Amino acid sequence: MNKDTVVTKEMIAKFHDNYVSRGTAKVLERAILKNGIKATSEDPAVSQRLHRVFSHEIKTGKVSNQKHSGRCWSFATLNTLRHQFALTHKVKDFELSQNYLFFWDRIERANKFFDNILATADRDLHDRLVDYYLRSAESDGGQWANAASIIEKYGVIPHYVMPDTFNTEDTTDIAEVLTYLMKKDALVLRRLVHEKAGNEEIQETRQQMMSDVYRACAYAFGEPPAKFDLEYRDDDHKYHRQANLTPLEFYHQYFKTDLHDYVVVTNAPDHEYGKLYSLPSQDNVNGGIPIQFANVPFKKLQEVVINQLDHDETIWVGNDILQQMDRKRGLMDAKLYHREELLGIDFTMSKKERLETHQAEVTHAMTLTGYNLVDGQPDRWKIENSWGEKNGDQGYFVMSQDWFEQYTYEAVINKKYLTDEIKQIADQAPIKLAAWDSLQ
């Protein structure tokens, strides 16, 4: 067994000699001290590589803005729906209520949380799975299937019917309340199980806990409407109105979409290709669409992405937005920052290695709306983000082909645009992933 290594004066002297042996060390030190690593290492040619002209582009309208929240997964899902509404009903900038979706997500997430706490009540409080559930008691983050399940169960409504509130635009306050409440409730439920309480007592207690969650959400977001009047003026200035619609009636009448027809196609090289994986620990809607991933090499993912875009349907994509991105200018390029060259340090890791070590994560969901071909091969892609119009070009980002390959992990594709091979993968019995898997 190796002994602990002590940092000695001799070692520090060697570190110093190695540092100053690089003739430009002091010049680089001054530049980095003044400007930071990113600005000093940025490739100025990136703007030329990522200019905003695309050979195939789906026309979409104004971007949405999730503000200080982690609701990108629901924004990207609603974006794909509103684009279909805009195309079918000729309403360019129609927007759906993200608040409505978020309200029901909080309710369904709490309900599943209490189920998970009861199901693991016989385990130690510091068991890894129990610890995972407690740590994720309240999170803004989510998967495409979470949003799809809520939409299929509760429908959708226009943004004007239930607009965002202070607490959806900044979820900090309500997240603190719900986190505290649900963790306290978890201890109560576990105690009842350990004390051999009857099922009726446990269910009554659990019901009151759910009522408390509902109350907090209603105060923070407003109660969702049971019915509403749909009113809009199309791009030809024609006025439309339909009264007393329920959210589900609106969804089924105006959106010709069955979200069960979509597959999350994934490129996760740390998992075996040609397999279907599931992540039941994050299935937050009982009886909803399960979280599943059909894992394929990147080129096969790209093939079905292009196929769906060619049929003028935008695409929910899951990416690691924290890598090689300029938020203000809306640029994503795997060679945007040359940190290795600047610092003289090797940062090289493969996509597989980044996932295996959790250096890579699916940190953000966006909407893919276009691409550019050169000699039959894509070199850049157009992205609709949900960070408002002040980032990128009126809210739209552009990513290079190598960024797409390195930092994109998921694309939600309609089955009719899949290859036969991926359809067969999607029909497999899924392999269940641990709650802490890299695809979480």
Written description of the protein model:
The chain is of the alpha+beta class and 440 residues long. It has 16 helices and 14 strands. Helices cover 43% and strands 16% of the residues. The two termini are 34 Å apart. The mean pLDDT is 95.
Please summarize what this structure is:
This protein has 440 residues and is of the alpha+beta class.
Distance between the termini: 34 Å
- Taken from the alpha-carbon principal axes, the silhouette is globular
Q: Residue ranges: pLDDT <50 for 5 or more in a row?
A: none
- Tally of contiguous helical segments: 16
Largest sheet: 12 strands, mixed
How much helix, percentage-wise, in residues?
Answer: 40-55%
Query: What is the C-alpha radius of gyration, as a whole number of Å?
Result: 24 Å
Q: Strand-and-helix sequence, N→C?
A: HHHEHHHHHHHEEHEEEHEEEHHEEEHEHE
Number of strands: 14
| Average of per-residue pLDDT values | 95
Q: What structural class should be given to the helix and strand makeup? A: alpha+beta
Beta-strand percent range: 15-25%
Q: What key attributes describe this structure?
A:
single chain, 16 helices, 440 residues, alpha+beta, twelve-stranded mixed β-sheet, two-stranded antiparallel ribbon
